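I'll show a typical protein example:
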Amino acid sequence: MTRLQVLLLYLKKQNQNGFTLIEMLIVLSITMLFLLFPFMQIRTMEDNQKLKLFLQQFQSDLFLAQQNAMINQERTRVYLFNDRYELREPISSTSIVTRQFDPKIHFYYFSMSTIEFGIDGNITKSGKIQVEYKNIIYIITFYLGIGRFSYEKI
């Protein structure tokens, strides 16, 4: 037997104990798939949570506008813009609060574009506003006379 044949025989015995490149790639790709599934779920949960937190902050600011109207005995308006909303006193035009929000959050007005609270804390005009963020839609309903509102997911 020549040295070359002995070397080839030795290399064949060494390769029988390991994995081939294709086997390693298959195992790694399956492992990557298992690792990616939780990240896709986290992204969906993050989107839901971002909109819920926005709605909670919006609700708190609406209550602030209502309290400001009752305490100062002056109408308070909430103006809705594409990237922010503002709470203002219409007579003095003083801005109480200005909140920036994610530009992917959109307001669609069904029957009102400005929310106004009277000096008794009641909303002066009832209506609905749609809030949308990445195909997640909420409808905010404002009830006339009781100064309250609710939101529901569609």
Q: What stands out?
A: The longest helix spans residues 21-72. DSSP finds two helices and eight strands in the chain. Helices lie at 3-15, 21-72. The domain at 3-153 is CATH 3.55.40.10 (minor pseudopilin epsh fold).
